[in-house]
Every structure is written in structure tokens, then in C-alpha cells.
Amino acid sequence: MRLFIALEIPEPVRREVARRVAGLRERLPQARWVDPEIIHLTLVFLGEVAEEKVSALSARLRETLAPYAPLPMRLSDAGTFPPGRPARVAWLGLEAPEELQALQADAVRVAVETVGHEPEERPYKPHVTLARCPSPWKRDVIEKLVAAFPGTIGQPWIADRVVLMESKLSPRGARYRVVEEHLLTGGEA
Known about the structure:
Elements: E1 2-8, H1 11-22, E2 32-33, E3 40-48, H2 54-65, E4 71-81, E5 87-95, H3 99-115, E6 128-137, H4 139-148, E7 152-159, E8 161-168, E9 175-183
Antiparallel strand pairs: 1-3, 1-8, 2-6, 4-5, 4-7, 5-6, 8-9
Helix pairs in contact: 2-3
């Protein structure tokens, strides 16, 4: 199974992203745009995981992440990777408390210990992917993207669950299915 661990973006915020992207796509070079209906905040991309390891992974995620309190979140601003060079990925940033970094680090640790995940060496930068650019976008295009997403985007929300998602690739793009969801209870039963 091709899996990742994520926080979901609520429907009203996804709708606002869709509205802004609709007016932007024709003004920018060709890209593979992520369907706003499925945008999310990836904590850990696991890739292929043997099906027999999923229940152990899920149980450890539940045990490790439940003590975290729900996190206030908000999308904010846009940017690209790699920074300061022709863009390969367009993204939206996130306003979130520092605890998000600890939550992500614990999710990585669980993935390493239960399924042998090899973590990325670069530091975690919370973002929501908007598009992948087959031909790198130049500075003027990046400036148009950034100008389309100034400041905060949509309403703030409370992230109160972490989801283990399956990603199935198809010619029409990725399709996601929630395998398990784990509530952030702040230690409350």
C-alpha cells in the first residue's frame, strides 16, 4: 500500500483555495495542479508499506499522537520549492503552533520504528502542495503565484485528527482513501 500520514484541510478552506486557483491556472504556465478537494498537510510520506505492517503502524500512531492537543491552523501565503530558484513545486504555507513540528517528528519516529521508513534529511517545512511544475517556473511566474495568495487564506480551523491515508495513482491523478484516523485528544480518553 502507498501510504502517508497527514492532517486534513476542512472543506470551507479547500473551497477558498479552489476559488483562487480557478482564476490563476490560465495565467500561469502548465502545471500538474492538485485537485483542491484533496489538498492536505503531509506529515510523513511513507511510500510503499507492506499491508501486514499497517495495523502495527496505526496502533503506534494512535498511542504516540493521542497525547497531543488539537492544533489551531490556518493557510497563509504561497511560495515555491526550491526557494530562490526556478520553481518545481508551488505551495501554500501554514500558520500553526510549534507543537506541529513535534507532532511531525513523532510521526516520523513511529514510521521509522514500525515500517523502516527512511526519513528525509532536509528539515520539515509545513506546506500544502498546490502544483508540480514539469517545466520550472521563472521568477515572474512565481511572483504571480505569490500575489494571488497574500496573507491568510480561508478561515482558521482546529486540526483534531491525524489520518493515515492510502494514495492510489491513476492517469487522472492520485486518489486518496483514509485507512485510519487518530484523534488528538490532549491525553483525554
